[in-house]
TrEMBL record:
Domain of life assignment: Bacteria
Organism for this UniProt entry: Clostridium homopropionicum DSM 5847
Alphabetized UniProt keyword annotations: Membrane, Transmembrane, Transmembrane helix
Protein name, UniProt field: Transporter
Coiled coil: none
Transmembrane parts of this sequence: 6-24, 29-46, 66-84, 105-122, 185-208, 243-264, 270-289, 301-324, 412-433, 445-462
Length: 463
């Protein structure tokens, strides 16, 4: 498979390295991304005005891609804040107080609940459900918001999404590209998923525990500015609040049942959660504010939207640059890339596979590296068909191991791009937990690198 790399590929790679270096130095990368978008446009179109148009159009593209997430976070925020004002939130979290007595228990309970829900419905709707119910009680138990965010990311966007045992979208994509059965990828992924999951979660918890004990991470840690809401107990009757809390749980339980039988996933599942949240917001506003309910609904939605766009405003320029690494480049600047190109990021991943010698150890390292590179666009799924193809090539050369190599590439691609390392893929969790997405990415980086390294070694032994 011959991959034609152009100056665009090398310039894109250069800016990725600059961005990573800037992040290590804890510098803001917005301007770097804007310059990168302009430079790619100027190089591809040889036109200043088209490059300037491309910068703005890339922002529009990124906003359209992120808009569903912005809206679900805004709606959930508006609903959660009204639940706090009404006093219902106290009744919702009270059962968990008996279970979550320490920050350690909070970390593992949040993670396991997030993983279980994500297996069935993917992480996006799981973030909203888990965040609204468990984050407040976890913080009271001593787990900082950053610790909760790490747990949600690693268990949901890491373990659950990369294995995808229930919905099986990820293994289907990689299996088709590798030319093998889905069941083969799933079976081969079990030891790798267990290794990656155990190593990463233990490493993450160890680092969080260490920082909590040293005082480097506390419940009073610096977080993004929150909209201040106080529990006003607008619904004074405890019995009424408990009935409403139970009704809300039943509504979300019904959502889960509908998702199962209607086979809703991804955006559809998120839309159902969002619609239910708006319904709850409207009913609780009427019961809490009475004649002033119309104004209260509007005010809470506006505050939720302000919060959502404030969070995502920082990310749009960054996401705009990395979306150019996928199909967005041709959509924004025209068909400038070579005809054989499947996107700048995928081309770079395939080129890497062609540059290295072939044996089982190198094959495993290359699949991990290629998967990680293709995950840099923040999707996780856009490049896993490529790693399936690369796994097929390498397995032919070494005489086997196609299922293990395919599963390894899938795990690497989704762990990096699906929402644990790439900051612009971490926004839902960061917004719900109200922490900085870039700081969350840095927190996840060390455990995930350790996990991928150990998992790659295990893959070498299996092959």
């Amino acid at each position: 498979m011959i991959i034609e790399l152009t100056a665009l590929h090398y310039v894109y790679l250069l800016f990725i390295l600059i961005i990573i270096f800037a992040m290590i130095l804890k510098k803001d990368i917005t301007l770097i991304c804007i310059i990168g978008i302009f430079a790619l446009g100027a190089l591809g179109t040889e036109s200043v005005y088209k490059s300037l148009m491309g910068v703005f159009n890339s922002f529009i593209y990124a906003t359209k891609e992120l808009l569903p997430t912005i809206l679900i976070i805004s709606v959930i925020t508006a609903m959660s804040n009204l639940l706090v004002e009404s006093g219902i939130n106290q009744e919702l979290v009270s059962p968990f107080k008996k279970i979550i007595k320490s920050y350690g228990v909070a970390f593992w309970v949040i993670g396991l609940v997030m993983m279980t829900i994500s297996w069935f419905f993917w992480p996006s709707p799981a973030v909203a459900l888990v965040g609204a119910l468990l984050i407040p009680i976890a913080r009271k138990a001593g787990l900082p918001a950053m610790g909760a965010a790490v747990a949600m990311n690693i268990f949901g966007h890491g373990i659950a999404l990369s294995s995808d045992y229930v919905i099986q979208a990820a293994p289907k994509i990689t299996a088709d590209a590798a030319g093998i059965e889905v069941s083969q990828v799933i079976s081969a992924s079990v030891p790798l998923t267990i290794t990656m999951g155990v190593v990463t979660t233990v490493a993450a918890f160890y680092l969080i525990r260490k920082d909590i004990k040293s005082g480097a991470l506390t419940v009073q840690e610096e977080e993004m500015e929150e909209i201040e809401y106080k529990s006003l107990n607008l619904i004074s009757s405890i019995k009424v609040r408990r009935v409403l809390a139970m009704a809300i749980l039943i509504l979300f339980a019904v959502d889960i049942i509908i998702m199962v039988f209607a086979k809703l996933q991804g955006g559809d599942a998120t839309a159902l959660i969002g619609g239910t949240s708006i319904l709850i917001l409207s009913v609780i506003a009427v019961l809490s504010y009475g004649k002033k309910s119309l104004e209260s609904i509007t005010n809470n939605l506006v505050k939720g939207l302000q919060f959502g766009f404030k969070i995502f405003g920082v990310v749009i320029p960054v996401a705009a640059f990395f979306y150019l690494g996928d199909s967005a480049f041709n959509e924004i600047y025209g068909k400038i890339l070579p005809q054989s190109s499947t996107g700048i990021v995928n081309d770079l991943g395939a080129a890497l596979a062609n540059l290295v010698p072939v044996n089982s150890a190198v094959a495993a390292i290359t699949l991990t590296s290629a998967g990680a590179i293709t995950g840099l666009d923040g999707s996780g799924f856009s490049g896993i068909s490529l790693v399936g193809s690369i796994a097929r090539l390498f397995s032919t050369a070494i005489g086997g191991g196609i299922d293990t190599l395919t599963a390894l590439g899938q795990i690497a691609g989704i762990w990096v791009g699906g929402g644990t390392i790439v900051p612009w893929a971490l926004i839902p969790v960061a917004a719900i937990c109200r922490v900085d997405a870039f700081e969350l990415a840095k927190r996840n980086l060390k455990p995930v690198i350790i996990g991928l390294s150990v998992t790659t070694v295990v893959a070498m032994l299996i092959i």
